[in-house]
Design a protein that fits this description.
The complex is a heterodimer of chains A (307) and B (541). Chain A is built from 16 helices and two strands. Chain A has 307 residues and is mainly α. Chain B has 22 helices and 13 strands. In chain B, the strands form four sheets. Chain B has a six-stranded mixed sheet with strand order 2-1-3-10-4-13. The longest helix of chain B has 26 residues. Chain B is globular and about 70 Å long. The termini of chain B are far apart. Classes of the chains: A mainly alpha (307), B alpha/beta (541).
Chain lengths: 307, 541
């Protein structure tokens, strides 16, 4: 590294050496510029009363009116609490699930069995959400599949989606079922890149398979786990409203109504473009803060971080 | 080593990034003032000679889902262009997403010449706001000059005229008018007549008779869900019209009584209704899965005999369910039951009754229209003699024949060779089975309701005092509209929670008072005030 050369000449040399890599980067950079940075200026409608006929620039400024309306809303605390709780539960229960599955698959010796397990677990990911929710609704009905099993054990069946206290468990469990296989792929891929020599060495030292898992496999996975975790933190408040809307009903509002479904009922159906943008912006700011703190903590603690 | 894992993983991550594009459209600003040449009304001769093509945005009716995919494949819309002489270019929103698509289209600022949309029900702030925001044109002068047929109809029918105007007297659409009392009632309680006969019970009229009947259905007919209704998106959707609620003197929205505007769920009667339904639910007289009951599950329950009573339409209810129940039980007959009352002989206070002016299926002309005059002349066709027959019955010799002076639908529509239901077949050739910019004719319904039970149903359900207590289609002022929407959004969420929690027994009926107190703290009084002022403005139109 000679710092005396100008940046330009270093860059040119690098460009010459890796010309094709640079060319391959162009579409990616273009995509982010066009679809992610471009629309950002539209976020200013959160501070305006947007009317399409006046255009983004021509609409009147209203300052923080929409934010105030959201924070002062009767249901604000409830939807915030539900959003955080559902996110937290998904983080605690759903995030580790694919890691555990990947470790288990890794321990299986029979290739054919591995393949079958992987295929079966990632199938649900490709079923449309509407169909999944239809299945969930049918299964949890008072006379649905799950309740029939419960009745066989001698308990009473009940329509589970009518129980506010059961909404989150149903949500999280079905989330795990749908995503576990798909999300384990990345961990399985990461396992492939662990040096086999390490296992050889450990075997010679007399480590059992369990010991190998704890001392070689898990540390090998840790960087990717950290990164996935940081990325997950950045989506903490984005509980998808589609699934919630398909599953909830007024009985379960108290545990199921989240920011996005609330905004859907209020913003989209009432043409409140500015209001929805304000809430979206609020969401993004919180997510950004979470992402940066997760990254900071992770860098301090484990030297793994996104930047 | 660590680096290698990292880079591998990041590569996988990047490859796995799904592409979700979201684009923001910029919009044209400023609207040129449209000048209208002055002159008295002139008649239009159809077909109009023109070389222009107009653009038209509108939903394809639900009857045609899976039959035709676009307007241009539907015979009615092909003929409509031919008869008026105006070529049209159609765009249609995906079924079931009309409101969202409309929303996106407005936000893009890229408007067609004509919009078929419900401006009272589905446009926040109502038609007045749509004009003020510069989306659609005020049509007063245009109708005055170029729409003689509609103008004459409105002059002859002042009651309709009052409904199709805004408070400030602006015309904003070419309206869909239900031209006869008979067409305004089409919904009510429906029950299995054959079960009643077998059990020796009369058709229930009072709440007590209903309780007896449902008990008998449960105990003697083994019905697992004696009474079931569609409850998506709100519990007991159709109770909005006051079914069962009406017995206790309320409905689920605003109504007028003794010159006062009242909100049903905050009145004492609503508590009595909750008490009754809580008892029914506890006793197993209502579907156990009621909070997740959608169209599919109600259809299934009726077909299998788990349910013996529901609330539905003459066409989409009795008409749809009769073949389903027959398939399972050849003797099954569904009939209409009157709206329930407390004391025998009372006339129900509420029931489904639509206004003569239905705000759906109406066509507005946008500020982007290149030639508003041509659009107006074209839309006026639906209100002419010839257009009236075309919109209601289609093409003579194809979809109907005159027998004397009565237009009779042909077998192509009523016994369709492609096995289409009458509602679907009629929708191919005419618009009378749903809506549109014309006056609906009673003679369509007389033939459309194929079963005697359907025709009788209208007479049974008609017997209510809804006309007296229902509010007309009033709208808040554009300034008040967002305040009103915010208040009612919160209150309706509260009403839905209260209703279902108490009925399912999660909360005692005594909670009702605290809910009403919450409604008050959410400014229910202000909403009533806004509605009262709107009613006053309406009455002064």
């Amino acid at each position: 590294m000679s710092n005396r050369q100008s940046f330009r000449s270093r860059f040119m040399r690098d460009f010459m050496m890796n010309k094709y890599l640079y060319i391959m980067m162009i579409p990616v950079i273009g995509y982010y510029l066009i679809f992610h940075y471009g629309p950002m200026y539209g976020a200013i409608i959160a501070f305006k009363d947007y009317s399409p006929m006046k255009g983004i620039l021509g609409s009147d400024w209203v300052g923080l009116k929409h934010f105030e309306e959201f924070f002062n809303s009767y249901y604000f605390l409830r939807v915030l609490k539900n959003t955080l709780l559902i996110s937290l539960y998904t983080l605690v229960f759903e995030f580790p699930a694919p890691i555990i599955l990947a470790l288990l698959i890794n321990e299986v010796r029979k290739r054919a069995f591995k393949r079958v397990v992987q295929t079966i677990t990632y199938m649900p990911y490709f079923i449309s959400l509407v169909v999944i929710c239809g299945i969930i609704t049918d299964f949890t009905n008072a006379d649905g599949l799950i309740n029939r099993l419960i009745m066989m054990l001698g308990y009473d069946g009940q329509a589970m989606l009518q129980k506010p206290e059961l909404f989150r468990p149903i949500y999280v469990l079905s989330e795990i079922w749908q995503r576990i296989g798909w999300e384990s792929i990345i961990y399985i891929a990461a396992l492939m890149s662990i040096d086999l020599e390490q296992y050889e060495a450990a075997k010679i030292d007399g480590a059992s398979r369990l010991k190998q898992m704890f001392h070689i496999t898990l540390p090998g996975l840790l960087p990717i786990i950290t990164i996935m975790f940081i990325l997950r933190m950045g989506n903490m408040l984005n509980v998808g409203f589609e699934k919630i809307i398909l599953l909830y009903n007024p009985v379960t509002y108290e545990t199921a109504d989240v920011i996005s479904s609330f905004v859907y009922r209020k913003g989209l159906l009432e043409f409140g473009w500015s209001y929805s943008s304000a809430v979206g912006l609020f969401n993004s700011v919180i997510n950004l803060v979470l992402l940066i703190s997760a990254n900071y903590i992770s860098r301090r603690v484990s030297q793994n971080s996104l930047w | 080593m660590r680096r290698k894992v990292l880079s591998t993983s990041l590569m996988i991550l990047l490859l796995g990034t799904t592409i979700l594009g979201c684009s923001s459209g910029d919009s044209k600003t400023g609207e040129a003032e449209k000048e209208t040449p002055s002159g008295s009304t002139e008649a239009t001769t159809y077909p109009i000679q023109t070389d222009k093509t107009l653009t038209y945005w509108g939903e394809i009716n639900g009857n045609l889902i899976g039959v035709k995919n676009s307007h241009s494949e539907i015979p009615f819309f092909q003929k409509w262009q031919e008869k008026t002489g105006v070529p049209l270019k159609f765009t249609a929103p995906p079924t079931g997403q009309v409101r969202e698509s409309f929303n996106v289209m407005l936000a893009s600022g890229d408007l067609p010449d004509m919009l078929e949309y419900n401006f009272i029900g589905d446009f926040p702030g109502g038609p007045e706001k749509a004009i003020n925001d510069g989306y659609i044109l005020k049509l007063n002068d245009l109708i005055d000059q170029y729409a003689p047929n509609l103008k004459k109809y409105l002059q002859d029918n002042p009651d309709i005229d009052k409904m199709v105007k805004t408070d400030s007297g602006s015309y904003y659409v070419f309206p869909f008018v239900r031209g006869d009392e008979y067409l305004r009632v089409f919904q009510g309680p429906i029950i299995r007549q054959d079960w009643l006969d077998e059990l020796g019970l009369p058709v229930p009229e009072t709440i007590d008779e209903w309780t007896t009947t449902l008990r008998a259905f449960k105990e003697k007919k083994g019905a697992a869900a004696p009474f079931s209704v569609v409850s998506k998106p709100r519990f007991f959707n159709d109770s909005g019209n006051g079914a069962f609620l009406g017995a206790f003197g309320v409905n689920r929205g605003f109504y007028q009584e003794d010159g006062q505007v009242k909100f049903g769920p905050a009145e004492e009667g609503f508590k009595e209704y909750l008490t009754l339904f809580q008892e029914w639910y506890k006793e197993g007289l209502i579907d156990k899965n009621i909070s997740t009951a959608d169209t599919k599950s109600v259809d299934g329950n009726l077909a299998s005999g788990a349910t013996g009573a529901s609330v539905g339409n003459a066409g989409g209810g009795i008409g749809k369910w009769q073949p389903l129940v027959e398939a399972n039980d050849p003797d099954a007959v569904l009939v209409a039951a009157p709206y329930p009352v407390l004391n025998k002989g009372d006339i129900p206070k509420f029931g489904q009754l639509n206004q003569g002016y239905a705000s759906e299926g109406t066509v507005a002309i946008t500020t982007a229209a290149k030639d508003p005059e041509l659009a107006v002349r074209m839309l006026d066709y639906g209100y002419s003699e010839e257009g009236h027959m075309f919109f209601n019955f289609g093409e003579e010799g194809v979809s109907y024949n005159m027998e004397g002076d009565y237009p009779k639908f042909t077998d192509l529509l009523l016994k369709n060779p492609d096995k289409l239901a009458p509602a679907q077949a009629i929708s191919l050739y005419a618009r009378s089975s749903y809506n549109g910019p014309f006056v609906q004719d009673k003679r369509y319904a007389e033939q459309f309701f194929a079963l005697q039970t359907q025709r009788d149903a209208i007479d049974v359900w008609k017997n209510t005092q809804a006309a007296k207590y229902n509010l007309p289609s009033i709208t808040p002022t554009p300034e008040e509209s967002s305040e009103y929407a915010t208040i009612m959004n919160d209150i309706n969420t509260l009403v839905d929670e209260m209703t279902i929690k108490i009925i399912l027994g999660n909360e005692p009926v005594d909670q009702f008072e605290s809910y009403v107190a919450k409604m008050k703290s959410l400014h229910l009084d202000r909403a009533i005030e806004i509605q009262t002022a709107a009613l006053e403005r309406y009455n002064n139109r």
